[in-house]
Design brief:
5 strands; mainly beta; 34% strand; three-stranded antiparallel β-sheet
């Protein structure tokens, strides 16, 4: 039996993580490379997302826990 080299397209499985002015590339949990970002780079994200100090945030609506005792009431007012 002999082994031969073959190219496999893994593009859809690669994940990028923002870290220290570069994007680190991972295949599953293995770091496979990085992309250096030029100084002054900007990000174009959808309107529910933003960047701040090397982190990416998603803006979501969540329930306010301050009034949690009223969240499990039925339509008749019974809790």
């Amino acid at each position: 039996m002999t082994l031969k080299q073959q190219k496999i397209d893994i593009t859809d499985r690669v994940v990028g993580k923002l870290k220290n002015d570069q994007i680190e590339l991972y295949l599953e949990n293995e770091k496979i490379g990085q992309i250096s970002l030029p100084e002054g780079s900007s990000f174009n994200l959808d309107h529910h997302f933003e960047t701040d100090q090397q982190k990416i945030y998603q803006n979501v609506s969540v329930t306010d826990d301050a009034q949690a005792r009223y969240t499990d009431c039925d339509e008749g007012g019974w809790c």
